[in-house]
Design a protein that fits this description.
Largest sheet: 7 strands, mixed
Number of strands: 9
CATH superfamily: Molybdopterin biosynthesis MoaE subunit
Order of helices and strands: EHEEEEHEEHEE
CATH architecture: Alpha-Beta Complex
C-alpha cells in the first residue's frame, strides 16, 4: 500500500502578503467555487509584565503536526462539501504586525466555507503541537497559551 505524502503547512518566518494574494488569484479560474473563507492570524503587541511583545518565536513537533493536520483535513472534507483547503503556519520568528497563520477554505457555497474555516482554525489552535514564545526583550519571553 502506498503511503500518502503529508502536505507541509509550515513556512519559515512570516507568511508573505504576496503568497496570500497568489493563492487567492490562483483560484479565480476555478468555476466550481462560489465562496472563499480566509483567516489571517497576525502577531499582536500584547502588554506583558516587563514590556510589550515584539515578536513570537514558533516551534512545532513537525511530523506529529503534519500527521494531525492530515486527519483534520480529511475529517473536514468528509463533513463539509469543500472544494479546497490550504493552511500555512509560520515557524521561527514573526514580528508584531506580520502574518503567522493563513487558512484558506473554498466551497461552492459560503456557509460551508465559513463554517469549515472557523472549525479548522479552532482545531489548529487546539490540536496541533505548535508553540509560540512571546518575545518581549532579549532577556524576557513568555510561552504563549493558544486561545
Amino acid at each position: 500500500m502506498k503511503e500518502k505524502k503529508l502536505r507541509n503547512i509550515f513556512t519559515e518566518g512570516p507568511i508573505p502578503a504576496q503568497k496570500i494574494a497568489d493563492d487567492v488569484q490562483h483560484h479565480s479560474g476555478k468555476n466550481d467555487i462560489g465562496a472563499h473563507s480566509i483567516f489571517l492570524g497576525q502577531v499582536r503587541a500584547d502588554a506583558k509584565d516587563g514590556g510589550t511583545v515584539t515578536a513570537i518565536e514558533y516551534t512545532a513537533y513537525i511530523e506529529m503536526a503534519l500527521e494531525k493536520m492530515a486527519l483534520i483535513r480529511e475529517n473536514l472534507f468528509a463533513k463539509y462539501p469543500l472544494t479546497c483547503m490550504h493552511v500555512h503556519h509560520s515557524l521561527g520568528t514573526v514580528a508584531v504586525g506580520e502574518i503567522c497563520l493563513f487558512v484558506f477554505v473554498s466551497a461552492a457555497h459560503r456557509k460551508a466555507a465559513i463554517d469549515a474555516c472557523e472549525e479548522l482554525v479552532e482545531q489548529i489552535k487546539q490540536e496541533l503541537p505548535i508553540w509560540g514564545k512571546e518575545i518581549v526583550s532579549e532577556q524576557l519571553s513568555y510561552w504563549k497559551e493558544n486561545k
